[in-house]
Amino acid sequence: MSVMTIKTILAACLLTAGTGAFLTMMTIMGRPGTAGDPGKGRRLHKVLGWAYVALLIPLAYLGLGFVKQMGDGMSTRGVFHLVLAGTLLALVLLKVLIVRVFRGFLKQAPALGMTLFALTLVIFLITAGFFLLQTVAP
User: Fold this and answer.
1) pLDDT in tens, 96-137
2) What is the pTM of this model?
3) Pairwise CA distance, residues 138 & 118, whole Å
4) CB atoms within 10 A of CB 48
5) How far is Cα 102 from Cα 96, in angstroms, rounded to an integer?
6) CA–CA separation, 128 vs 132, rounded Å?
7) How far is the C-alpha of 96 from the C-alpha of 121, rounded, in Å?
8) Is the pLDDT of residue 71 over 90?
9) Which of 72, 87, 94, 134 has the most CB atoms around it within 10 Å of its CB?
10) Where does residue 33 fall: left (phi above 0), alpha (psi -120 to 50 degrees), or beta otherwise?
11) Residue 34 three-state SS
12) What are residue 105's phi and psi, to 5 degrees?
């Protein structure tokens, strides 16, 4: 199995965890009066969020290998991916710090979560989506 295939599988899992965390918190915060336990939803959001972080680490590591290998010959799509991925890493770190350490900024956590989801989707589509289009689609 190629490294690109492994990265695509990990990226799909990352997108799934991110989507689950996003939808869980959106349901808790954006649908008042829904049946269910908000504590259970927050725990699910926490588990999916840490799964997201755990999947992001090997993806970043494998991505750095590609950057090292490509050097200055990187495509425009690759440069976009690199810049957006760096932004994603910074925002994940910021959100974890806010939730864990700087609780006074907790009001910004929902906006960061929505930004992380949107950025994850964009990065997935411009890279893993493109790779799948090139390899799987007829």
Assistant:
1) 999 999 989 989 999 999 999 999 999 999 998 888 888 887
2) 0.88
3) 28
4) 19
5) 9
6) 6
7) 19
8) no
9) 94
10) left
11) coil
12) -100, 15
Cα–Cα nearest to 56, from 18, 94, 111: 18
Give the contacts of 57 (CB within 8 A, at least 6 positions apart): none
Eight-state DSSP code of residue 28: H
d(Cα 30, Cα 96) in Å, to the nearest integer? 22
Residue holding tokens 């690109």? 4
For the chain, the straight-line distance linking the first and the last C-alpha, in angstroms and rounded, comes to 20
DSSP-derived secondary structure letter, 133: H
Domain range summary for the chain, segments of one domain joined by +: 3-135
The Cα 18–Cα 22 span in angstroms is: 6
Q: Give the distance, in angstroms, between the CA of residue 54 and the centroid of all CA atoms in the same chain.
A: 10
Of 132, 98, 135, nearest to 11 by C-alpha is: 132
Tokens 């770190």 belong to residue:
93
pLDDT at 17 over 90: yes
Burial 17-33 (b: 16+ CB within 10 A, else e): bbebbbbbbeebeeeee
